Amino acid sequence: MAGSLTWEVADGIAVVTFDLPGEPVNKITQAVKEEFIATFETLGRDPEVNAVAFFSGKRDAFIAGADIEEFVAITTAAEAERLSAGGQAMLERVARFAKPVAVGIHGACLGGGLEFALACHYRVATDHPKTQLGLPEVQLGILPGAGGCQRLPRLIGARAALDMILAGKTERAAKAFRLGIVDELVPPPILRDITVGAARRMAGGWRPRRRRSGGALGWLLDGNPLGRRLVFRAARRQVLATTRGNYPAPLAALEAVEYGLRHGMAEGLKREAQLFGQLAVTDVSRKLVQIFFATTQLKKDFGISNPPKPVEVRRLAIVGAGFMGAGIAGTAVVQAGVDVRMKDADLARVAKGLVAAREILDDRLKRRRITRYEHARLVALLSGDDRYTGFGRAELVIEAVFEDLAVKQQVLREVEAAVSDGAVFASNTSTIPIARIAEVARRAERVIGMHFFSPVARMPLLEVIPSERTAPEVISTAVAFGRRMGKTAVVVRDRPGFWVNRILAPYMNEAGHLLLEGAAIDELDRLMVSWGFPVGPITLLDEVGLDVAEKASGVLHAAFGERLAAAPAFSKLVQDGRLGRKAGRGFYRYGGGRKRGVDPAVSELLGIHPNGGPHAAEIIQRLVLVMLNEAARAVGEGVVRAPRDGDIAAIFGFGFPPFRGGPLRHADDLGAARLVGELERLAERHGGRFTPCDVLVEQARRGSKFYL
Ligand code: 3H9
Fold first, then answer.
1. Closest Cα to atom 11, ligand 1: which residue?
2. Annotated active-site positions, please?
3. Disulfide check for 112: which of 66, 266, 340, 535 has CB 3.0–4.6 Å away?
4. Where in the chain is the domain with CATH 1.10.1040.50?
5. Above 90 in pLDDT, residue 167?
6. Ligand 1 centroid, distance to 63 Cα (angstroms)
7. Cβ(466) – ligand 1 distance below 6 Å
8. Does 485 contact ligand 1 (Cβ within 6 A)?
């Protein structure tokens, strides 16, 4: 195999380039590890070499970490521990290398890549947005196992290191510089010279002097054992609150850091490798790695075979300057840098939408994601009107008006009269089939669904819904533009509710049935949060808006009959003006931007007396199984093209617990035979909505699964 490390020596400095042949990114495989060792040995012996300057040969990527495929192939904890110890040993050689090593970082520097950089003696990074540094291992269910849990806290202090490691956070170069991970921040064209210069200075005896950021408080907390104990106690509390014991990696990483600081580097490394070994073979890690690869595959998948070249969108027009429209506008400007024109019925609404869109830009500025200059440039891209002016130049129009077929069709007619023939019309409907909306279209082949989730700036999913008549070029255009907006795009079939709302509906409805049987509002939420959802079903209803949920529910009921009829509980709340968080009152009360507890008036309104309802295990069983059953049924109808898409959409769309791998993986884990048995028993007691679907019955009969 061709080597991945090459070097040339000039003026006493060996300039080493890492370029893994045939791969889009550099990753550290077993073979690469051996090559590193051999290379450093050779350079160590070479009397011509006084120092090393290390770079990546990839255009915009430094090192993406250890090869994930290699570690998932491992089946025993002992083997994984050896892998980690091997990585540590290699980096120990770099750290103890007799000649100084400077590293020039441009592009993603993640996991084992950052661990390598930390072992080097001087770090220079470019200030380019693609330069990101981080230890994302816990997001794969493991921990930084090549010395990262030891070197990072020693460099920047326990508090800042835990902040990064426990959340698997990736930081831009400027932040990494402020934290002290990077010694120098430079524009890309001078990276090489500055790094080589640093190597040369170190060869001449100069040593970087580092002062930890964080001031007196930082010293108090990091610089002495008592302060550190406080830091660890707070971090542990925080981890338990966010993971609820469902993810073992952050706690293990915390232990590796703490153990190392207490017992010294060598003991810390040993403990780190042991814990890495244990984590690497857990089911949670396997599930998280599957999600990583599924997401990576989706980045390249346009949802159709032989996708035509997408239309390049430079101008986006949006109809409806409400919460969704403004969210789409702000996100499109920030992420894709396109010109955005908003239209609504009157100028007051347009102005409100523009302000809301601008808030997304302001937030980015506040979090230093964009500069003042970029902010000013992006703000200028937003404009609006109460007529369709400017629509003639848009390549893509997204409508985000009220969820009502007649209203959406009217908008489509008006837009078609205002745009060019080639423009794409996308509806942000959450439930109404695109074919129905397109019935009134003159150019139905240019009509598609782009279903964003709320809040648009934060939710990572986009459902793209072509109708039978949508042209392939329109599909690739919608997917490509969704990606430019930073979304994971999943192409789904044009059935009512598509995928996400289709499988959420029975879950929400079941929560309504349980309420009427006496389950307490906050108890339902608490149970599902402990099962792994970010919020429970009742809070989710309040967030989505009860009026929106009622509309969606009406469409699904009409399409699928009694099985998806809304629980009687919800319409009473809508009639009472309880529309959820946006109205300041739903099941919960809201004030000052915060949730203020369950509103006792709701029980009275619904005529219910919370008495605990069914026991906890049954509540969870009913809520989960009704969703899995609907998901399996929708797969049978071809709503998603592959189980992978269904699982990723559920995880990214409404936070189905990632450690369970998604509803279809979870169904596989439980097994169809068990699911069918439990659903049948529930159907006997609670009615036909639990009747197991044909897909599960067939799987149970044949012993098959969603995933091979
Ligand atoms: C680790 O380091 C453990 C150590 O602490 C201890 C060890 C002892 N491995 O995403 P893209 C593939 S754990 C294997 O489309 P982008 C990816 O699957 C690692 N493969 O590009 C895809 O393959 P294909 C911690 C990897 O520009 C191709 O490269 N590191 C790895 O959008 C292109 O990827 C991470 O978790 C890998 N480490 O984004 C970082 N990385 O072409 C994971 C990438 O066959 N990686 N591939 O479909 C990323 O976050 C992104 O890939 C990155 C580039 C930001 C680097």
1. 296
2. 463
3. 66
4. 500-638+671-702
5. yes
6. 9
7. no
8. no
Poorest-pLDDT segment among 14-18, 280-284, 535-539, 576-580: 576-580
Whether 460 contacts 655, CB under 8 Å: no
Is residue 434 within 8 Å of residue 494, measured between CB atoms?
yes
* Across 37-41, 149-153, 418-422, 604-608, least confident range: 604-608
Fold of the domain built from segment(s) 5-281: 2-enoyl-CoA Hydratase; Chain A, domain 1 (3.90.226)
What per-residue confidence (pLDDT) applies to 220? 65
Least confident piece of the model among 156-170, 384-398, 582-596: 582-596
**In angstroms, what CA-CA distances link 423 with 78, 429, 484, 675?**
58, 18, 18, 46
**What is the pLDDT averaged over residues 565-593?**
88
Q: Which atom of ligand 1 is nearest to the CA of 66?
A: 2
Task: For residues 9-17, give the mean pLDDT.
Answer: 97
Q: Is the pLDDT of residue 221 over 80?
A: no
d(CA 380, CA 354): 11
Span from the CA of 457 to the centroid of ligand 1 (angstroms): 24
- Is ligand 1 within 6 A of the CB of residue 145? yes
User: CB–CB of 454/327 below 8 Å?
Assistant: yes
Tokens of 567: 């629980």
Binding site membership of 25 for ligand 1 (Cβ less than 6 Å) = yes
Amino acid at 478: A
Query: Does 557 score more than 80 pLDDT?
Result: yes
Answer whether residue 214 shows pLDDT above 70: no
Q: What is the mean pLDDT of the chain?
A: 95
Nearest CA to 549 among 403, 659, 338? 403
315-491 adopts what CATH topology?
Rossmann fold (3.40.50)
- Delimit the CATH 3.90.226.10 region(s) of the chain: 5-281
- CB 67 near ligand 1, within 6 Å: yes
CATH value of 500-638+671-702 in 1.10.3720.10, 1.10.10.10, 3.30.70.240, 1.10.1040.50:
1.10.1040.50
